[in-house]
User: What shape does this take?
Amino acid sequence: MDRNVKDTIVEGITGVSVLLIIFIIVSILAVTIVGGWPNLNWTFLSEFPKDGMTKGGIFPAIVGTAVMTIIMAVAAVPFGVITAIYLAEYASEKSVIAKTIRFAVKTLAVVPSIIFGLFGLGFFIGFIGKNMDALLNGGELKWGQPNMLWASFTMALLTLPVVIVSVEEAIRTIPREMREASLALGATKWQTIKSVVLPGSVSGILTGTILAVSRGAGEVAPILFTGAAYFLSDLPKSLSDQFMSLGYHIYIMSTQSSNVDATLPIQFATTLVLLLLTFSLNAVAVTLRFKIRKRAK
Amino acid sequence: MNDIKVKVKDLSLRYGTNLALKNISMDIPEKMVTAFIGPSGCGKSTFLRTLNRMNDLIDNVTIEGEVLIDNINIYDKNIDVVNLRKKVGMIFQKSNPFAKSVYDNIAFGPRINGISQKSILDEIVEHSLKQAAIWDEVKDRLFNSALSLSGGQQQRICIARSLAVNPEIILMDEPASALDPISTAKIEELIHELKKQYTIIIVTHNMQQAARTSDLTALFYMGDLVEMNRTEVIFSNPAKKQTEDYISGRFG
Assistant: This one.
């Protein structure tokens, strides 16, 4: 075949792929916005579901998602930062431990999210929770069942690789000269990490946090067995209570509802809220990183 | 000649199996400027970094021999590297202030040593900046980022930063090689001033700089110490042909 013809074909195929992707994204946004926007109002955001969840709002699902992601971040970020510090600063590249951790992090990143849900059910609820009940409550069921805490922890496991990878990357961008400057002044390794390396990695830590949060806010599978509730008439009052979540709410509205058609406007509006939430979190991550990088220069 | 501050005995250094320094022995006098010269890759910077154990940070480095500072071998097992580095400060080729304010750069060393009282820190910062001859240029912007200063100013900030921990020896690894002639002249003036109080060891590519600033000069070549003597002797009447060839620009 003529080389120029081949060139035209390749250009055509790549162009079509790009158009296809743009078309898909625009369709998702358009359908969600057209279907959801008219139903989005203050009542919808601030009220509980009513009439068998065919009317009313999604307030408890917004609160549940927010609180769950906050607890998740509080659990995942320090743990991820500490692991990243170990990998970047203490472990030698060739050591068996470092290789094992890296392998584990990569594996963790590709495990299907439903597996995390099952793991959370087996480990946090079945093992830790049941034992906590046996030790603390004389066997009375409190922690050995799905709740906010275990769901958040399960989600933290899922998002941990995101945090570790972005923080380690950030730590590695701190130039060797900066570490040497600090060490040459008689700083210990930990003082160097604390006063030079970590402050210089703030943008990476923030990016990792927000990427984790926006991922965790949207996931459903990990919390399916570990804490998300179909419907609650009250907000959760403690970590051992179940909670409602936006993603799970969409799922049950579209599959479990007694009247799927009647809930369609609610589904669209809930989806729009979830999209807005994750998009804005991502936007915050991008802006923060941009600002901090600019300031560092 | 002043008292001996640093005495190096049969020092060899290997990167893996590659012998980078071969049996170096030398005496470095107190409160004088000693310059190391030689072509790129001759081992002068590597040697400088053995004096505050900066090579410890690199994997695969093995060191034999002794480095005695005030008659104590710094490669002894019970030596605290952190204390050694407080005593032996270092200025790097590329100025490397932290992405902090001028004040916080200078206060970094005192703070990691546990000084937190503001009045003491203020005093140290001012004194160190004055010693590094940069106080007048930065006194009105102590709380601006050190990175906003010019390259020459940044290097003097780095010198002030190392003075703030009260070192006795200052190692300078080509401190002016990235600077313009005026900034270089300021650094050289500063070296002249600082040697009244500190023992200074400077690695330089620039032979005129060695001639201008140093009291003693040592020539390195391929990991060997070729010759070391008073600077005027090295530059006017060297004992070895290799030194003469290098000084006159016939190799290197």
About this structure: The domain at 42-296 of chain A is CATH 1.10.3720.10 (MetI-like fold). Residues 163 and 208 of chain A are 4 Å apart (CA to CA).
